[in-house]
Design brief:
- This protein is mostly beta strands.
- It has one domain: Regulator of chromosome condensation 1/beta-lactamase-inhibitor protein II (Methylamine Dehydrogenase, Chain H, 7 Propeller), CATH 2.130.10.30.
- It is 0% helix and 46% strand.
- The protein has no helices and 28 strands.
- Strands 2-1-28-27 form a four-stranded antiparallel β-sheet, with no helix packed on it. A four-stranded antiparallel β-sheet has the order 3-4-5-6, with no helix packed on it. The chain has a four-stranded antiparallel β-sheet with strand order 7-8-9-10, with no helix packed on it.
- The chain is globular and about 55 Å long.
- The relative contact order is 0.12.
Length: 396
């Protein structure tokens, strides 16, 4: 038997528990799922500013939460949706990916098509904002052969099968990677535009708040946009933001190939071929965990309330939880890690911003060292939104 648990901010019903509340500080089972969804079929849980999606093995998407701009995608807007609802307008399409911005949503079908809905206040849907100020139903964009989708605060990025990257939406911090004919940063791009000056074939994209990342076939990481907290892996005292893609030095990852990327609002996490995980960017909520020279005691919460010594770390730091990290999910400023080696039950560790109980340890104090969260079963899937979290477990 499989069960879905949720915790953290619930002011818009984004936990899907059937009610609205300020916060839920401990993992709580989502009891009232629709009849047409089986917990065991859930493959992905992802959240935005105040809304959440579940993606199933059957290629269906279910949404809940903040819906002031139709970002839940059930055909309504202007109210909260406290229980998961099937997204309308995608019938006949098998969806394989979904991402959330602050108040917009983007999904990817198995056929390589991209669907968007929610707020278009800054062109983040890839449609002229005066024609489509928002949409409460998915709209299919004129893009083909897409293999990866990502959403920032108010911008969107995709990668295509032939290795190109497209971006659109808000670009005031260079996060779109586009320059106009006069050499100025493009601050608003209302329709998808291919990225120039990218070296290598892009396999996937990830978005921070106002930063964009691309993973290439060579295992390199490209980054552009805001660097206020060192999220481009360059010293923010020297580089405030950058429009052209910067290649993050390969030696920052031990000279290894990067195989996956996850981004919070102002920090980034990368996994390399050996299984090691590197993390960098903003640090003042504890979202980077302890640095290597601070030592590590991941099983102890005695240092939970210590104030981090640094506000940022722009050089990626190897994250050590003393066990293999299988996958990480990033909220805005907090993280979830699914850890465990072969042949053993996976467990959940969380750390970072915890104002809404989004780390799931029963407190609202920020967590500077990863702590284990007790769940009644073996972990299968983890997911995070801005200030909320999810875990799918197989019950013992």
């Amino acid at each position: 038997m499989t069960a879905l648990y949720a915790w953290g901010a619930n002011s818009h019903g984004q936990l899907g528990l059937g009610f609205v509340s300020e916060q839920v500080t401990l993992p709580t089972r989502v009891e009232d799922l629709p009849d047409n969804i089986s917990e065991a079929s859930i493959r992905l849980a992802v959240g935005g500013g105040g809304h959440t999606f579940l993606l199933t093995a059957q290629g269906r998407i279910f949404g809940a939460g903040w819906n002031n701009n139709g970002q839940v995608g059930d055909g309504t807007h202007g109210r909260s949706v406290p229980g998961f609802q099937l997204i309308r307008g995608l019938e006949g399409h098998h969806m394989i990916g979904v991402a959330c911005g602050w108040s917009h949503s983007v999904a990817l079908s198995r056929s390589g098509q991209v669907w968007v809905w929610g707020s278009n206040s800054h062109g983040q849907l890839g449609l002229p904002k005066d024609e489509v100020p928002f949409s409460s139903l998915p709209i299919c964009l004129d893009l083909t052969n897409v293999v990866s989708v990502a959403a920032g605060l108010r911008h969107t990025a995709v990668a295509t099968r032939d290795g190109r990257a497209y971006t659109w939406g808000q670009g005031h911090r260079g996060q779109l990677g586009h320059i106009d004919s006069e050499g100025q940063v493009v601050k608003l791009q209302p329709i998808p535009r291919v990225m120039d000056h990218i070296e290598g074939k892009v396999l996937s994209v990830a978005c921070g708040q106002n930063t964009t990342y691309a993973l290439t076939a060579e295992g390199h990481v490209l980054a552009w946009g805001d660097n206020k907290w060192g999220q481009l892996a360059h010293d923010p005292r020297n580089v405030a933001y950058f429009t052209c893609p910067l290649t993050i030095p390969h030696n920052y990852f031990g000279g290894e190939r990067v195989t996956w990327l996850r981004a919070g609002w102002t920090h980034c996490v990368a996994g390399v071929a050996s299984g090691a995980v590197y993390i960098w960017g903003r640090a003042d909520y504890g979202q980077l965990g302890p640095s290597e020279d601070e030592g590590e005691d991941s099983g102890s919460d005695t240092t939970t309330n210590e104030v981090p010594a640094m506000r940022f770390r722009y050089i990626p730091n190897c994250l050590n939880l003393n066990k293999r990290i299988q996958v990480i999910a990033c909220g805005s400023e907090h993280n979830l890690a699914l850890i465990g080696g072969a042949g053993e039950d996976a467990s959940l560790f969380t750390w970072g911003w915890n104002e809404h109980g989004n780390c799931g340890n029963g407190t609202t104090v920020n967590i500077n060292r990863p702590v284990k969260v007790t769940l009644p079963g073996s972990l299968r899937v983890i997911g995070a939104g801005s200030g909320h979290s999810f875990a799918l477990v197989k019950l013992f």
